[in-house]
Amino acid sequence: MESMEWKTWSNLPLSQRDSLPDLSGIYVVVDAEDEVWYVGQSINIQKRWQGKGHHRYTQLSRTHKKRSYRIYWQNFPSHQLDEKEQLYIDLFKPHLNDTKVKKYVKKSIQPNDEIKRLLKVINKKTTLFPDLRSVVIGYYREMDEDGTVEIKEYLSIIIVINANDLYGPINNSCNKSLTRKGKNIKGSWCVYESDCEIDDPKTEPVRLFSFMLPEVVYQFVCYPSLIENLRQHPSYLQQVEIQGQSVLALKNPDIVPSLLSPSSPILENSFTKEKIYLEYRAKDIKPIDDLL
Fold first, then answer.
1. Which of 85, 115, 134, 192 could disulfide-pair with 122, CB 3.0 to 4.6 Å?
2. pTM strictly above 0.85
3. 123 in helix, strand or coil?
């Protein structure tokens, strides 16, 4: 008996498994290099492979694009299946038959993982942002009420971002936290409001997306002009590591007020509340180096 006897059998690509025949027999999973990966039996081969029902399907599907699996089969009466299966396992020596079935459990996103992901995204260089996409300008401490109406000190890290990232990854993450898929980051996002100590009831407060962890709050301020102005002064920046991610940060936050002038006429009347907030907060901001 030939060790590649399966080559003479009928076969279909793994992706067409729903078209397998409604009969009993032995089936063999083989890749494009003629490596045998699995040998099995069934009284109904079609039902055995229907949908994602086969216990090896998930494992095989993860490498199908690379290996191009095919399912070969041969009809045998049901009373011969045990004998034939063992015969072909011994003959074909499949890779998976004596191994445990791998279970792939998708990890639930945790708050720490989400802020790491966001920091990575908003620091990734793109065609639109080839050098500077966001910048950590520093941190400040503030006393405020927590969820139990207790007074607590918060450490807030201020990250200036562009409009694309505000309406893209930041907004998407916030929306995800409101869904079942994002249940593990539910409550991590909040909207921080500040009147910037402007004593005028007609003045709307600035509202900022903030991501809260037990010990630190990440405050995202959209002010593209600051980023554009910093592009002209790369020496003001340094590379630091936050949450295991490499990010760009301002060396000296004392220069923040000098970076707030609109970088173009188009931006002159945009994000004015964010500008007022950064002017107001500038006196409190300390270098991020003090935390690292």
1. 134
2. no
3. coil
